[in-house]
Amino acid sequence: MPVLEQLARRAFDGCRVLAAEPLGDGLRNSNFRLRLDAAPLPEIALRIYEHDPSLCQKEIDLGRLVAGAIRMAGSMASPFVS
Question: The domain that contains 63 carries what CATH number?
Fold first, then answer.
C-alpha cells in the first residue's frame, strides 16, 4: 500500500489511505477502491495506468468531450499525466 498512500497524499493534500481494495481484473491497468481519512470524498476509485501513458490522456480527453451528455465521475488524474 505504500504506492497507493503516496498517490493519495499527492492528490489530496496529505490524506492517509485507511483501506485499499483491488477492483476487478484490469487487463492494461490496476483499479483500487480507496477509503481516505480526509479528502473531498471519503471513498475514491484509483486507476493506475501501467503501460501507455497516452491512454490516460485519451480517457481524460474523452471524458471532457462527453461530460455534458452523460453522468460520470470526475478525473483527478490529469495533473499526473506526463
Answer: 3.30.200
User: If you write DSSP's letter for every residue of 13-62 in order, what string do you get?
Assistant: TT--EEEEEE-S--SSEEEEEEEESSSSSSEEEEEEE-S-HHHHHHHHHH
Cβ–Cβ < 8 Å for 15, 4: no
Instruction: Show the domain range for 53.
Output: 2-80
Task: Report the percentage of the chain scoring pLDDT > 90.
Answer: 12
Compute the average pLDDT of residues 55-70: 80
First to last CA, the chain: 23
Alpha-carbon span 65 to 67, nearest angstrom: 6
Give me the count of residues in the chain: 82
